[in-house]
Specification:
two-stranded antiparallel ribbon; 5 helices; globular; 2 strands; 102 residues
Amino acid sequence: MIIAAILILLSGGVAFAVVGGGDLTMKNDGGNVVLSHDAHVRSASLQCQECHTKIYLNTKKHATVVMADMEKGKSCGTCHDGTAAFAVKDNCEKCHTQDKAK
């Protein structure tokens, strides 16, 4: 009985881990950016380890990058290069919201 309960709890934890960390809003003078874990995990069929810890560590340890860095393949630009996913260059409206950060 105890083993069955443990297995149920463990399998439930795995199911929640697949969804990711929810939406993450990054404040930006050019318009806030909302990263949707759901869009990346489910829609793009990515596994957590494809980004964490290769590209991103976590919100507290991840270094701030600017668009020029992303255009050189860092951070979001690792995948958003125009080949694997839409390019970060000249696609501002795909990530930055119209309501500017304050």
